[in-house]
Predict the 3D structure of the following.
Amino acid sequence: MLFIDTDPGVDDALAILMAHAHGSVAGLGIAAGNVGLARTTANALKLLELIDAPTPVFPGAPQPLVRPADDAAFVHGADGFGDTGYLPACRRAQSEHAALALLRLSHEHAGALTVVALAPLTNLALALSLDPTLPDRVRRLVIMGGAVTGQGNTSVAAEFNIGFDPEAAHIVCSRWGAFDLVDWELCLRHALPFERVEQWLAQGDARAAFYAAISRKMRVFSRAQRRSGLVVADALAMAVALQPDLVIEAQVRPLAIELDGALTRGATLVDWAQRSGRPPVARIVGAVDQHGFEHCVAAALGVAAP
Ligand code: RIB
Ligand code: CA
């Protein structure tokens, strides 16, 4: 059973489609990040309406714990879904806060819940602060975040999810005993070839058509960045959560979050030589089976026998 904390967000949307195609979803916790909370919530509701999924949507924190941060509308569109101007969903979000919903569901699914964190970690940090025993009841935590050798995307050293709320990331990474980390640099290595994505979007079902519309802006941006393909970070993290055996290589290391560096705030500092004496809490994924990843994505877009 999955609990997904997310800030939809174009790559979040693909991850949510994958979760519903291949897994069981107890709920979506919504964060501010790519765009503001009202829009990330509306986007989640629209996506679930598209696939007619009964998954409850729990809005969470509207801003980071301490300092304000810039969104990623320049990548995802002002509305977070490629500015397609879609008709808002008829369904409504729950009134329960994402942090409280996560705590409740961790009891209802004790020992069986996989938490997939695809957004800034504000909601998870709040849940942990309210109940430090949360990790004891969670089977697995997979985090999309960080840049383990300092090659960030929101600044030189920081990746967006961590850089948006470093204090929240510090709370989660220092108090959650063990987690899988899918960092930005891994996502760059596992970009989806542009032409293959275009084929899937042409061959798929209504999910593919919707994704083609909301991802158009991001696909143009990605090509302009001269990347090797479409980087869908949250989809890669979701593939690792859904199919752990896709992981080919991983290393478990201590990891800390820089909070104060003038140039490095939000950086994920990995103790590769294990010289700090801190506990090795992060299982840093180094390589994933690319074919298996692409199959997981294509199937979620309705591509038969991808
Ligand atoms: O750095 C990539 C992450 O930031 C992804 O989760 C993307 O959706 C953005 O939130
Ligand atoms: Ca995200």
In short: Residues 7, 9, 11-12, 33-34, 72, 118-119, 144, 153, 159-161, 184, 233-234 surround alpha-D-ribofuranose (ligand 1) (CB under 6 Å). DSSP finds 13 helices and ten strands in the chain.
